[in-house]
Amino acid sequence: ETKTLKADKTVRTTCTYCGVGCQLDVSVINGEIKGIQAPETAEVNEGHTCLKGRFAFQFYNHPDRLKEPMIKKNGKFEVVTWDEAYDFIAKKLKEIKNNYGADAIGGFSSSRATNEENYLMQKMIRVAIGTNNIDGCARVCHAPTAFGMQQSFGTGAATNSIEDLKQTDAIFLFGANPVKGHPVTGAKIKQAFMKGVTSIVVDPIKTSLAELADYHLQIRPGTNVAILNMLAYFIIKEDLVNHHFINSYTEKYEEFKEHVDNLDINELEKLTGVSKELAQKAAIAYAKAERAMEFHGLGVTEHFQGSKTVMLLSNLAMMTGNIGRKGVGLNPLRGQNNVQGAADMGVQPHQGAGYLDINDPKIQQYYAEKYGVDKMPEHEGLKIPQMLNAAINGKLKALYIMGEDTIMTDPNTNHSIKAFENLELIVVQELFMTATSEMADVVLPASSYFEKNGTFTNGERRIQRVNKVIEPIGNTKPDGQIIIDLMSRLGYQQPTGLTYDAKDVIKEIADVIPFMKGLTWERLGENGLQWPILEDGTDTPMLHINGNFKKGIGTFHSFDFEESPEIVSHGKKYPFILTTGRELEHYNSGTMTRRTDNQTILSEDVLEVHPKDAISKGINDNETVRVISDRGSVVIPIKYSKNVKRGVLRTTFHQPEVFINIITGSVGDKETLTPEYKVVAVDFERL
Ligand code: SF4
């Protein structure tokens, strides 16, 4: 017999997991969350969610939740009051600032926190501490997207909306498996493939979408620039370029064309492992489509040539006129729920809130006036990898971390541990004990997204409300409240009397960020607004109509393929290429999803190996192996898989039992330092 329970209340909010930004109706009975439904009226998800958003919510009241502030004394955490914790942190930060200067302190913000919290976090580091050493987890995922698209178009964000999938004729999916990483958008892409739109997938892995696609270009990992040059070569050779678009709205096409004309196509074929014939067919199919949408993911950004790849993807869209119309554009599949928003709010060491250049004295003056201070820090801050190096070199003394498990998620774990061990102060705001919070001096218990108000910005620039469903658990506080409290302990008084209230913080954000002038809590309504938001509240589902690029004109860039230093330095000794990714059931380091029933469905990381590679080493299916790189080794069960080509291995990093980042390396994208998780030189052996 089934019994229908009536909810005491149902609250609409935004999913905390991925950048799709699904709207969820959360039902509460007797003060406990009992179910999640997907509202059909939600523009983003139209009645759908995935396994994570809908079912993986039990983490919020898991017994492991941190509920009290703690300070480490003699190597052991002791519960303290909030006042004791705040006083301790403020005193230590002031001491470090006095002894070594403000640049000896750094902050890692979180793309899992709300816009308001990210805005406050960067403000605390810049204004209350006095340094631009503020960075966030975009550094380990989509920083190259923001940088690359800014170079090409002037704006580092998706040009179109997911809704445009209904109107496109072709989908070009590069380095992404949205069926696992962005499931609701992945399902829409799959439906479009099945309905017969032209479909091209570039991926070293034979994903389910690759299998379904008209063209799967299964490249050798790390050869993204080479394959994009190949595609451009054939588009130009077949004269399928949009001359009107190029002549009217872009610059430097002639240099690009000359560069492409001189490419050795046979060499590119050899490098990528993709035949000229297949590349030619895919190029023609993309360029001939009336409207073609590009989507890309971390398979583009987490590479030595990540930013360059983004610029070449922009070239592809511009040279075929696939910009500024419905059903076209460059659409990065932003990983985390609020990775777009965190960057918008100024969580980066070179740009403040609204992407204004903090090196420019006029901009420094602008922020100083808005924040009610005499002056702002004058030079660019350090990126996360630079902060870790600075800690090892003794220049960085304190790290303030809001909701990041750096030790688990950043590459070359032993390097991160060494950096952390060198610090005088580590403060971590978290939901649970993690590998990172274990190393902290102070751990502050944060409230989950069910327990606070605010906004998240999804991958299509849509700012949506996060509504409080239940009161904060135990003695936890929302991250933003903690930051506001600490700012006043550090001696900074908000000039406008700002409190931690979403409406209040949004008012200040709208005042500071030029392209959010018309943003208010009320105007967000149930379906949010896509920035830029004009003063009258009009939002912008599509960018660059009629070549209206923020930088005035779209710019072509030309690049040659360069082999990753990881392969150059270690490829001989470690002849296999390991590439890492994600599974549907888990979210990144699994801090939340491992504490839900999803862990029962998928409880281990496995290594996908081509059967012939395993057999050549005498290793059976499901056996456990040791995977070795220049940084160390890990132990992991293998699974025979023909989804990887010979010489390529694939795994995930959801489970701490394997701790795959022990073997990933320190090579990063040249421009943004985003780590190259997708190309790791390894070997493997029977245990
Ligand atoms: Fe949440 Fe993404 Fe799943 Fe939607 S697709 S429910 S946003 S994890």
Automatic annotation (TrEMBL):
In short, the EC number is 1.17.1.9
Q: Per its record, what are the GO molecular function terms? A: formate dehydrogenase (NAD+) activity
Q: Which UniProt keywords apply?
A: 4Fe-4S, Iron, Iron-sulfur, Metal-binding, Oxidoreductase, Repeat
Identify the domain of life.
Bacteria
Query: Which residues belong to any copy of the 4Fe-4S Mo/W bis-MGD-type domain?
Result: 8-64
Q: Where is the signal peptide?
A: none
The record's family statement is: In the C-terminal section; belongs to the prokaryotic molybdopterin-containing oxidoreductase family.
Q: What is this protein called?
A: Formate dehydrogenase subunit alpha
Q: Which organism is it from?
A: Lutibacter aestuarii
Q: Span within the entire protein? A: 218 to 904 of 904
